[in-house]
Amino acid sequence: MVATCNLKICTSTNAGTESPAGDATNWNLMATDAYDSTGTDYQSNPIVVPSSGTNYSYERWMRLEFTGTFNAIENVKVWKSAGTLSDGNLALYSGETDTGVTPVDTDSSVATSAIPTTEGGATDITPAAGIDASGEKTDYFVVQLDVPSTVTTPGDIGSQTLTFQYDES
Amino acid sequence: MAQIITKQGKELNFDGLDVVEFNNHLRENELKSFSTSYYGKHFFVDLESQEIYIDGELYSKVEEKLENVRWINFRRVKLIYAMSGGREQDISYGIGLHGISNQKSIKCGCIINKQGELKNLE
Fold this sequence. Notes:
The structure holds 2 protein chains of 2 kinds. By secondary structure, chain A is mainly beta.
């Protein structure tokens, strides 16, 4: 008996379209509200460095879905466990919510804190009602990339890694 | 090795069970103690004395006796997703007990990772 956990990327109205059918293979940040189903779509949807002010990626809404046989999933946490942004002026912000909202490419009202980078500072996305049945999901974890005009290193932002952690009993 | 000793003194053996399946048996019985093994170490949790032993040696005990004591036995899963693709998995196990002391929830026990390293439950 082992729970199956799949990462879902949530897009469109009220973040109500969850992709893919199984486990997401990436959480690439793009200038379009879509899951990067090919793993290379991000190359044609870059967040351009503006001449002034700040451009924003579309918010990346994601959550975990648990299926299979288990009694309870508890203490679901997430943090950025590895990765350095390619330019010191780039910034990743994140936040948590239990309510789906349509992703935006303006300054997020959900992803408002610097993304946590330690297990001790991880964001708890355990839903208030708990997870004790197949098909139940966590709260949303929302990430957004801020690209200000001061960025001088265009191109890939560098590999970033998220760690999701949960206790299964 | 996975074993339950009930409050009635009955020994129940459940070798080879997954943690979730073993938990089902823990739930079904009034426990005096239980024991199990993860990553080569043997854990014995005595709910009556509220002591935890690892490989026969006392690992931890509560300072003050807890009320409403319950067992802890879980699998901790880390799923590591690279932004541009790739998923890795890491599993550790948590074993111990928890209860109430001075109206606070107290946990006692440890988490063992696959390298056999231990850290206290928080």
